[in-house]
Every structure is written in C-alpha cells, then in structure tokens.
Amino acid sequence: MVSLNTADGVITIGNPSVPNANTHTSWGIPVADPGVPLSSIASLGPVNVQQVWRTQPSVRKVVEFAARNVAIIPWKVYQRQSDDDRIRVSDSAAEKLLRKPDVQSRRTSFDLLYLLTCDAMMYDRWCVVLLDDTKGRQWLQRIPPRMLLVESDAIDNIIHVGVQTAQGTIDLTDEALAIGTGWSAVDGIGVSPLVTLSQILQEQTNAIAWRNAQWDRSPKFTGIITRPADAPKWDDKKKERFIQSWRKFRDSNAGGTPIFEDGMDYKNLGSTITPDDANDIEGRRLSEIEVCSAFHIPPELVGSRQGNYSNIAAFRQMLYGPTLGPILERFEQEFNLQIIPALDASGDGLYGELDRNAALNGSFMEMAQYLQTAVGGPYMTRAEARSLLDMYKIPGTEDLIVPLNVTAGGLASPTDTGSQNRKARQSQARSQARMALRRSALDELATVKTKAEAGLADTLRGIYQRQLDEHKTGENAKDFHRKWDKILADAMNPHTWATALAAAKSVIREYNPDESGWSEDVMQPYIAAVNNNAAQKINDGMLDSLDELDESDQESDDDTDPKQALLNKLKDSTALAWAGALVANCAGFGRQDAARASGLTQKTWTVTSANPRPSHAAMNGETVDMDDIFSNGARWPGDGGLDVDESAGCTCVLSYTW
Fold this sequence. Notes:
alpha+beta; 3-stranded antiparallel sheet; extended
C-alpha cells in the first residue's frame, strides 16, 4: 500500500490486509500490478540492480568483499550473569538456529549473512523473519528486497512489513523479524547507494562502450609505404607485382628483409589507437575509489589504491573495526531486538554476538603469547589443549598445572627465563647500532660524493678547453650537439654512476644487507638520461658563450683575451656548479631507488646543516610516502627538477621506514 498526499487529501494504492486487492486505489480505480512493491521502485529509481551486479565489476568487487568478510564471522549466544560476568550458551535454540538458519533449504549462517550484507549495500534495506510450521520446525527466512514491502508513518517509524508475492501481500508485521532500512528525506525506507552512484556507473559504462568502439572501428595499421613523386612511372604490372611481394613478406612466418624499389620508404606510425584512447586503467581505478567511498570501504582494502598496512594484524584491525564494524553492530542489535528473544523460551535474557575476535585473532602462537602475558601464568588445562587438537579426552587432565618456578608477579611460563625483561634494552641497543651504521654509511657516501664532484669538475674543465680549442666561428649548432653531446655524456658517466651506486649501497647496507629485490642495473637508464640531458644543457650554454665570444672578437679593441676570460669563468664557476648539482641529484636518486626496492614505504627529510635554508629547516622531519614529493616539490635532496635556489649545495638527507 502506498499513500500519496494530494490537494484533495490522502489517497492510497493497495490494501495489504486484503489479498489480491493491491491493484485498486482508494477511489476504486484499477492500477496495473507492478510486480514488485512500489516502494522498491521509489527507492531504486531507474537503477536496475541486477544489471549493475552483472556489468559493474567495481560494485560487485566492493560489495562481495564486505559480504564475504562479514559472513565468515560466527554467531555466539550468551546469558548475562552480572555486569562483569556472562556464560556461553552454545546449546541454546538461538545459537543453533543462528548457526544453521534453514537446514531444509540448505541455508548456512555464511549464506544468510552474505545475502543480508549484499541486500543492505545494494538496496539500503534488508529483512529476515523467524518462521515456524505446524510440525514445530523453525527457520530464519530472508526476504529479498525486491519483494519487501515496507511502510512508514509521517515520522518515519516502520508500521508495516510485508512480502509481495504473485498471490498478494503477506503481512509480516506481527512476526519476529530483524529489519534494517537506510535514510531518506521522504520516508523511512531508505535510498539505494546505487542511485547515488548511478551517474558514475553510467559514465564508466559509456567509457567502456567508447573504448570498445575505438577498437572495433579504428583502422588497424602500423605504418605506410611512401614512393617519391619523381620516381619513374609505375605501370599496373609492376605495381601489382610489388603489392603481391609485400603481402607475401607480411604474411610470412619465416622472417626476411623487404626490398623497396625506386626510393620507396616505410614510415612507422605506431598504433593507430593511442595509449590515451586504449588506456582505461586510470578510469577504472577512479571509479572503484568512488564506489568504495560510497560504501565506506577504504580503497586500500580491496586493492583499488596502494596501501601501507605494515602487517596482517593492522589489515584485520582496519577491516573489522571502522570498516565492517557498523554493519556487524547493526545486525547484532536488530537480531537481539525480536528474533533472539523469541527463541529464548525460558526467558533467561539471552543475547547474540557476532564474534569479531574470531576474525581479529592472529595465529595460535600469537594468541598463546598474548594470553600468557595477559594472565601472568598458565591458562589452559591439558584437556583443553587436547581438545584443540581434536584428541580424545583423558580423565584427570582437567586441572590447571602451575609449575613450581611460576609464581604470582614472577615468570608467566616455565619456558620464560627473564629474557623478555631485556627486550627494551635490546631494542635500544639495536636502534643505537642502526644509527651508528647509518652515520658510517653516510660518511662513506660523503667521501664518494666529494671525490665525484672533484673528478666531474675536472672532466668538465677538460671538455671546455677542447671545445674552445676546436671552435670555429659560425659553427653549426646541430653539428656541435651531434659531436659534443655524446662525448660529454660519456665523460660524465663514471662520476655520476659511482655516486648513484655508492648512494644506493648506503641504503642497502642499513636496511637490506642481503640486497633482496635490488639490482644496480635498474638504475643505469636513469643515470644515462641524466647524463644526456645535462650534456645537452651544458652544450646549449656553451653555444651561447661561443656566440658571445665571436661577437666580442669583432668588437674588442683592447688587449683583453675574451677566450681566456671565458675559459676561466667556465673552469672556476660553471664546472663546479654543474658537478655539485649532478652529484647531488644522482646521490638522491640512488638512495630512493634502493629504498623502494628494499620495500621501504616512507621517507623523512632530515636537515644536517647548522645553517640550512629556511624552507629546508621548515621541512625537517617531514614524512611522505615513498613515491610522493615533499612540500618544496622535491623527490629527494638535490632533486634535478628543483630550482637552483632549492638544490645547490643542499646537504639534507632522507631516512626511511617500512
């Protein structure tokens, strides 16, 4: 039944108390049966839930992730004895039914919790009702949201619950049930999150359709063959012969070399579908993040965004704490409201809990160490230990054994030797040893950097001398670069490479002595790119200086030697500036690469100078993720992408953590 406010008063569609009467208004006007409750249509709008479930992998991944992790948590029923005491009632009808909701339909506790979680996330409402038959059998029946009929009054209190069937509406209002609905501005029924996400999901659908169209309709060729305009005239016979020979070469699996005639050339165009056209990874990732946000699931938990959970324990705490905790709490409260009291025939005040500790608990070894420390002594009998191993019970093993060397306030276990009391001192000693190792590694790196700067400066001075000696007025810039870029890059490489390698070793020595996951070969392409880029910039500056030199030779009328003055400037300042900048950048890169390869996830900026730049002093202690940049835009101290004011002469260093 749906009530509508109109200018003529309130009218209703349907009457839940009269079977087959739901197709007439209060005025007696026939209304076509929609097949599902009208309230469901109102809360879902145009969204087709089944279509979303079938075609939107981001929604299905997030919802199933939550539902599966909720479903593995077992129900336990307790009886409250006092404010600080309770007993487990595992043989109660309530716990038996919660663990086996419907034996006849082969519905397990996992199945029921899985489906209810999916209902809550997909429809923003869920319902389960306690039913029995004439034979005394009881079971928990989930009501699919598509058939669920919920009505609320003017202040959003639920006043009617029913299930819509082909034969009419079955009234469940007076049954023992658990029901949950979300928030809505117009009623107490809720609004599906899929309605909120509909535009994002539609955008993703359109993007996939567009990319598929690109693959289907775009021409598939990687290059073209060109023939000079002034080539000899090509008759039809020669043209056809060349086309057939090219097709034969293209279709051949044996390899070979094509032969071109009359100056023809093959121009490689690459793929006709650009990476931007074909790449949908970023779009999918952003869609998944939006879906995760809508369902209050951190994207890191489902793999939609890189996370930094340091261990499994931290992952479990996040999962069953603020992420799934509200869902679990809601199920507990709703089941304890009517269903469990209805199963408590003796009136013992039973209540149910979803045992989150079963999901949060670590390994048996972790739990044993924790409990032993917590209780300060043995906590398990031999009978209980045998039960954990599924071994039969031996009489006389029910008593707790307390060894003579275990006393109150003393050792917690006969296996303890007091060494646990030295853990703090050992941790402090390890920290001091690491700091000493770090200082030693950084001192060695500083020695290598000083040597590399001096060697690189001398190398640049030698190149500058040769360039001036071989310079000719009016020298072509392209020829100059073609000759000197490679010479300069090759000459710089020994110094930049030695710096990067020593920097990487300084991190490996401290954090990853086994060099697990790290290879020096990975750094070579970056160092080569640094050398090539620097060579081009240095030679650009040299060309400008040579142009100025040529002009000064024509205009000078004094005894000053412009060439010598330029050479002195290049040797005294330019060479030193370039050497310092390149060494600092390569050292920073080497440490970053080794830290990432070693599995370190965060980096911290540390100032070592007694008189640092104000901007660097403000950054002291700043910590960011490994691939992020610091507040000054740097990836590492001396980053080549920074302005010279931020990088020149910087002595700051980075420390790393997992």
